[in-house]
Amino acid sequence: MTTQDTSLGPLPAPPASPGRRLAAALHRHPRVRLAGLLAAPLGWMVVAYLGSLLLFFITSFWTVDSFTGNLVTEPSLDNYVEIFTTEVYRTIAIRTVVMAALVTVTTIAIAFPIAFYMAKMASTRTRGILVVSILLPLWSGYLVKVYAWRLILSADGVLNGVLGPFGLRGPGFGEVAVWLVETYLWLPYMIIPLYAGLERVPGSLIEASSDLGARTWPTFRRVIVPLVLPAIVAGSIFTFSLTLGDYITPTLVSNTRFMGNVIYDFLGVAGNQPLAAAYAMVPVVIMIVYLLVARRLGAFEAL
After folding, report:
1. What is the pLDDT of residue 19?
2. Is the pTM above the cut of 0.85?
3. How far apart are the C-alpha atoms of 51 and 63, rounded to whole Å?
4. Do the domain assignments include residue 3?
């Protein structure tokens, strides 16, 4: 006796859940998937960063009534006229830009041999130790490092204690102290991009330059520097911008005024937010120009 097959065929697949349908749609449209992933961080940047800059820019055209102290929201160029016609503001701006450039050049000079040794000469273990040693100071607080330097540079500090037996003294507090501390603070931000750029330079090019009779300096100037120039400019973006906007270090190790100190005084002591906003536009414009030049030099490709 045979049994008759009573099956009605394969069962229909269960309906896909909304999550599966969404995943399938995103898989078919990679651009939509990318937009969804970037929507939150880009939205936050637009609202929190670019939005605040826009509000700051708008505020820079307001003024403060000299009699009542109230804000006058009628657009005016008085703040910009005061900034560009007052000699002390121009002097402070030039001093700040020169300090930022000096710190950048100093960090390049110190970082280059360190990064070259790490990329081309050090063993794997030594390279790892050096990377940790460079990144380790970034884990400590900014104020801790600045106050440590304040103790080192003080009149009865470590530096004068070491130099005293030789009849020498340290620079004390002042512009030299600002230069030293800023260089120390931002040096890791120059070493890491330079190390990444030098690591991508083929060793065969350096050997070929040597085989063709080039000495160390021509090889460095004509072979290495052009290849790592984007990495140098990428590191300089950090060192230049961070020095340009810093006001804590000049306050703690110097009495010299920089743009960050003046902006802080406008906001706190003088209570003139529109004038502070107008003066803050100066470093913003400087950095926009700097970033445009850096982009032409390929710095963003090295980041």
Report:
1. 66
2. no
3. 21
4. no
